[in-house]
Amino acid sequence: MQASIIKIPFDKCIVEQARRGAALGPGAIQNEAESLFLFPKASWLQVKETNDFAAMHKEVESTASAEYKKKNFVIGLGGDHSVSYGLMKAFAKKFPKKSGLIYFDAHFDCQDDFLPPTHEDVLRTVVNEKLFGKNILHIGARNFTDKEQKFITGKMWFNLADMFYAENAPKAVLSYIKDFAKTVDNIYISIDIDVIDPAFAPGTGWPEPAGVLPQHLLYLLNFLKATKKVRGFDIVEVSPPKDVNNTTARLAARVLLELLK
After folding, report:
1. Which neighbouring-strand residues pair with 260?
2. pTM of the predicted model as reported, rounded to 2 decimal places
3. Topology, domain 3-260
């Protein structure tokens, strides 16, 4: 199956200018990916809209939908996490039955009801629009508001906000992922790079301490890949201006490789 990688260089929904930089993420990830010896051949596409929220979401959705119609495996590279909305809408239309979302993020992204959503609201919009019903598994949240915590109650299959503090964290989380994978036939994975501990992924706009270790994330992703149910995914919030020696972009490229090889 041909892999179509859609670069989405958009970060205008991040109000704080000092935290921007994710728009440069797709290019940095591509540069690192193409330097990996085992990286497979793929079709690289790029969304052109970089200013208007609504137009960007529409272009992302239409681009992803066109690639799904070709029966390609679709991957999105952000950009901030808002870009996942168009990708998920295209996925939900392509796979309308028994689909689930696994959302790796240091935050819940359920703050407000903005539409189109910003990076702080994208998961709330996905829940409200029932793109995956309650088949949503959130992994890695460690900084969120009371408003967000109240919103997710009863609306998701499960939330693993604290599991990675356990001594046997990878296996404990994997047990939940296994149960989740049994309930769906099609899985979309959204990976905000800030789910990783910033000691290993400093190049992001909202770093949060005490995050997931890279090898633990790869361990979980390799299990998911082995289920043969993963039909699409995205990697977002890599910010080259905040990176150190391209560490974060290189890690994102490695994640991309693990899911494609």
Report:
1. none
2. 0.96
3. Arginase; Chain A (3.40.800)
